[in-house]
Design goal:
The structure holds three protein chains of three kinds. By secondary structure, chain A is mainly α. Chain A has six helices and no strands. Chain B folds into two domains: 53 residues; 28 residues. In chain B, 28% of the residues are buried. The chains are: A mainly alpha, B mainly alpha, C mainly alpha. Chains in contact: A-B, A-C, B-C.
Chain lengths: 197, 106, 628
């Protein structure tokens, strides 16, 4: 997709959209930090039997974390393939990334359903409110990412995600990795820290 | 960026990027991430030294954070201003989180 | 590469250059700037009328011009309108119009996103005000203060839809502002003319850069606060439900972490305008450029360290209060430095008291007064007496009217010829200045006394015998004089727009690149982008004063220029979250079609994003000289 603002035309040497996207990432970091603050303030506010140690399945969440991390690997291999003009390989890696993202969402949907049936909802306690909001917004970001990747697959129909589309793949990759980084923080703060003995 | 010249002109004078990583590098980083995640899970079995465990967990997740940012997001090989932008965002995010949490406890 | 015609589901880009739809589909920063300016001025008048009604109500004790509930709606909407729908968009109008011209660019980095920001502002502004149609009695107009403190805003205490219009409307506005922030930073970092290093940029560009940085780091905080509030109101969440363990202080922190940087968003572009107007009408270079730049950056950063000075009285304790007192006092330093730099710029200059200059000098005096009362708030102990009194109202009206508004009016008179091709009438301008200046002081200075005499904020009437009558009456008289000044200003606009477009390119002997272009500039801005060698390059190009080279225009015959294509995707994408939020509102009203409306909004978003991604480059080639 031709556009103005290619790297060689700019003062910084960085493509307009790539620079803009890093600014967006910096801004979204503040967004998630504020949601995290809400969680930290409220994480102790649960009713007996409906708290993190009662509900969390740390083994399952570790597996889903692993899936999301590996999806980042798949994504960067896709970006790399696109930059080396291996269009069809790039497309395959993007598909793998999207599928792994869907898997992560599946785990999260299962988790939310299980917690809800156990009595934890958005309105049942401050912990419920904070937990669902924080992890839910992360999940929504993953979902948006999956849609973005599927659109990227359409964009690469035919010859694949070739080097002329490399910038598009790279920006999508930045988003995906950022969502992964947010989860790295969330996994530790929300899940792991509850199980320290 | 200092002279306002378009990058194409400056490129004739200074090299723009550092060396690019290969797929092998990425897979290696991916393997490290997997190992760290396993370690984070296993360390939960350690009893008694909770302050130490929490510190180690924080360091391990920070390591994952930096690896994804530096290698997967390419910051280590890109123009420094991108790292600066991200660093400002992350630092401000951390400071706001700590400040509000601290004030709420005080 | 697939063309638009071969990609499924995409409307081709519109091509009209004139007419209604050309404005709806425009991506030209100059047109978008005018849209912001006109819409912002309209909302400024709305906010002014809301203030005028409040002043009528408070002119004497015990009046019933409006009910208490309506008065609550008035002070809420006056502030919300002025800050978010009036002043910020007016500043945005300047930044949008001028930024590319000042750095020698043809447009901003992301023209379609720029248009999107405007449309979501318009839709958000309508959304917030929609409750007026339902009336204030049932609480359909926001009436909980412009900051919407929890848990007054919980459904239990404020069941009317006003707070929902407010919360959702502000979320819409926030998205647009954030996007503008990203756009301007990339434009400034990436699209400067050859030779224009960062330290050669006009100060207005620096203030735009720092303001945009503040925006992108501050707005996420209020976004989260509003999302939490919306979740409480619409989905029975417990963020601020005290009975469930919710904390109202959490809201205040998240609001003010945004709220304080927000006031620097309101003042820095204004300071940038003054930094451009003063040197031109003093015919002298800005004093201390590097210090001005450094102070701007320092203010931007330090603005994030002071937020809890809005919360001195909530009981955070002496340690926290002291820390924020110190940081608040510290931030007065870079601000004060700028005042001295402006005065030094004027000292020894050949001053020309045009209307633009009158407002600029007025800014320096009035902003300083506002700064002094602000400094008095910085000490937590004295703030304990001043908080929630009219003393605070005095402070922020001095910095926002005497500061920001005066700068806007200065900028309007300074750049009107460039934008509209006609010079505003100087006689009408002087009348409007003196009426506004006198009216403003008569209206706002009494607030200092009222505050120290103990008059609280946000009361709709007061008892006689407290010593408040004379000041309140004086303030109301002041508002009439101020309004007269605004009417003269509007008359000036009308009279001027009827004149032929005969303004020269450079009526003021300007210093910066916008004055090298015709008035108004052609759609492509620069036929040839100059190479810049100095700060104030255009000035030294005209008056070398010993400097060798200031500006260079390389090619004698300019090449054809590619103009970005217009697009309907920005307005369509702006419509999507508006519809989604309308659906949330319907859910709050317990209407069954809430969910389908939300789904429809998401579908429109997907369609708009799809069209955006695949509508293709579009645009046209234009020969410089064509279409002027």
């Amino acid at each position: 997709m031709a556009h103005h603002g290619h790297a060689h035309e700019t003062n910084t040497g960085i493509d307009n959209r790539k620079l803009g996207f890093w600014l967006f990432i910096a801004s979204e970091s503040i967004f998630f930090a504020c949601l995290l603050v809400g969680y930290l303030v409220y994480k102790g506010g649960y009713q007996p039997g409906v708290g993190p140690t009662d509900l969390f399945n740390i083994e399952l969440t570790t597996v889903s974390t692993f899936v999301l991390l590996m999806s980042s690997l798949a994504m960067v291999l896709g970006v790399n393939a696109a930059q080396r003009n291996e269009g069809r390989l790039a497309r395959r890696w993007v598909l793998v990334t999207a599928l792994m993202g869907l898997t992560f969402l599946g785990f999260q949907a299962y988790e939310f359903t299980h917690f809800y049936h156990a009595g934890l909802s958005l309105s049942s306690s401050v912990f419920g409110t904070a937990f669902y909001t924080l992890t839910g917004f992360h999940g929504a970001h993953v979902a948006v990412g999956v849609i973005w990747l599927l659109t990227l697959l359409y964009h690469g129909r035919g010859a694949g995600l070739t080097v002329d589309k490399g910038d598009d793949v790279e920006v999508a990759g930045l988003y995906w990795h950022f969502v992964d980084i947010v989860w790295i923080v969330l996994f530790t703060v929300v899940y792991l820290l509850e199980f320290v003995q | 960026m200092k002279t306002g010249m378009p990058a194409a002109q400056r490129a004739k004078v200074t090299p723009l990027h550092r060396a690019h990583p290969t797929p092998r590098t990425f897979v290696a980083v991916g393997a490290v991430l997997a190992v760290i995640t396993a370690a984070e899970f296993l360390i939960l079995y350690v009893r008694g030294a909770s302050a130490l465990v929490v510190t180690i967990l924080a360091l391990l997740s920070a390591a994952k954070f930096f690896l994804v940012a530096a290698y997967f997001m390419h910051l280590r090989f890109d123009a420094r201003i991108l790292t600066a932008i991200f660093a400002v965002g992350v630092t401000l995010a951390a400071l706001i989180t700590i400040a509000v949490k601290f004030i709420s406890l005080a | 590469m697939a063309t638009a015609a071969k990609t499924l589901g995409v409307i081709p880009r519109p091509t009209a250059q004139t007419g209604f739809w050309s404005w709806v589909a425009t991506v030209d920063h100059k047109r978008i700037g005018i849209l912001y300016g006109v819409t912002g001025f309209f909302f400024f008048l709305v906010g002014g009328i809301e203030a005028w009604i409040m002043r009528l109500q408070l002119a004497r004790p015990g009046l019933e011009v409006v009910t208490a509930k309506t008065f609550n709606a008035l002070f809420t909407m006056h502030a919300t309108t002025m800050i978010f729908l009036g002043v910020t968009p007016l500043l945005s109008a300047f930044m949008n119009y001028l930024l590319p011209l000042l750095i020698g660019a043809r447009d901003v980095a992301f023209p379609r996103l720029n248009a999107f920001s405007y449309w979501i502002y318009l839709f958000g502004g309508i959304f917030i005000n929609a409750g007026w149609l339902m009336g204030t009695a049932r609480g359909a107009v926001p009436d909980v203060g412009w900051f919407g403190y929890a848990n007054l805003t919980s459904v239990q205490y404020t069941s009317g839809l006003g707070s929902d219009f407010w919360t959702l409307g502000l979320l819409l506005l926030g998205v647009g502002t954030l996007v503008t922030g990203f756009n301007f930073i990339v434009t400034i970092l990436n699209m400067r003319a050859p030779g224009m290093s960062l330290m050669k940029m006009p100060v207005f560009v620096w203030t735009t850069l720092v303001t945009s940085a503040i925006i992108i780091f501050a707005f996420p905080s209020i976004t989260v606060a509003l999302i939490m509030l919306m979740f409480d109101r619409a989905f029975a969440a417990n963020f601020f439900e005290v009975a469930e363990g919710g904390s109202v202080l959490l809201y205040q922190h998240l609001f003010w972490v945004f709220g304080h940087p927000e006031v620097y968003i309101l003042i820095l572009p204004a300071m940038g305008i003054i930094s451009e107007v003063l040197p031109v009408h003093s015919r002298k270079m800005l004093f201390g450029y590097s210090v001005m730049v450094f102070s701007t950056a320092l203010i931007g950063f330090m603005g994030f360290t002071v937020w809890s000075h809005h919360m001195f009285t909530v009981g955070m304790g002496p340690v926290v209060n002291s820390i924020f007192s110190l940081t608040t006092m510290a931030i007065a330093v870079p601000t004060g430095v700028k005042i001295f730099n402006w005065l030094s710029t004027m000292w020894g200059g050949r001053l020309r008291f045009t209307t633009a200059m009158l407002f600029a000098v007025g800014f320096i005096a009035c902003f300083t007064i506002g700064g002094l009362s602000g400094f008095m708030h910085a000490a937590a102990p004295s703030d304990t007496q001043q908080h929630d009194t009219y003393f605070v109202v005095a402070h922020f009206h001095y910095v926002l009217i005497g500061g920001t508004l005066f700068a806007i009016l200065s900028g309007i008179h300074h750049w009107f010829p460039k934008v509209f091709g006609r010079l505003l009438d100087e006689r009408l301008g002087r009348w409007s200045f003196w009426l506004i200046f006198a009216g403003f002081h008569t209206f706002a200075f009494p607030f200092h006394f009222l505050g120290l005499l103990g008059m609280p904020r946000r009361i709709y009437t007061y008892a006689p015998g407290l010593g408040w009558e004379v000041w309140n009456l004086l303030s109301t008289i002041g508002v009439f004089v101020l309004a007269a000044g605004v009417l003269v200003l509007i008359a000036n606009f009308i009279v001027t727009m009827r004149k032929p477009m005969d303004a020269p390119a450079d009526p003021w002997d300007g210093r910066t690149l916008e004055w090298t272009l015709p008035s108004p500039p052609p759609v492509y801005n620069f036929a040839t982008v100059p190479t810049v060698y100095l700060r104030d390059a255009f000035w030294f190009h005209k008056h070398p004063e010993g400097k060798e080279k200031a500006l260079d225009y390389e090619s004698p015959r300019p090449a054809p220029i590619h103009l970005p294509g217009s697009s309907l995707m920005p307005v369509l994408l702006a419509l999507a979250p508006t519809i989604i939020f309308a659906g949330v509102l319907f859910l709050r009203m317990r209407l069954s079609y809430g969910v389908p409306v939300i789904v429809a909004g998401f579908v429109i978003a997907l369609l708009a994003l799809w069209g955006w991604a695949f509508e293709g480059e579009g645009g046209s080639l234009i020969e410089p000289g064509e279409g002027d």
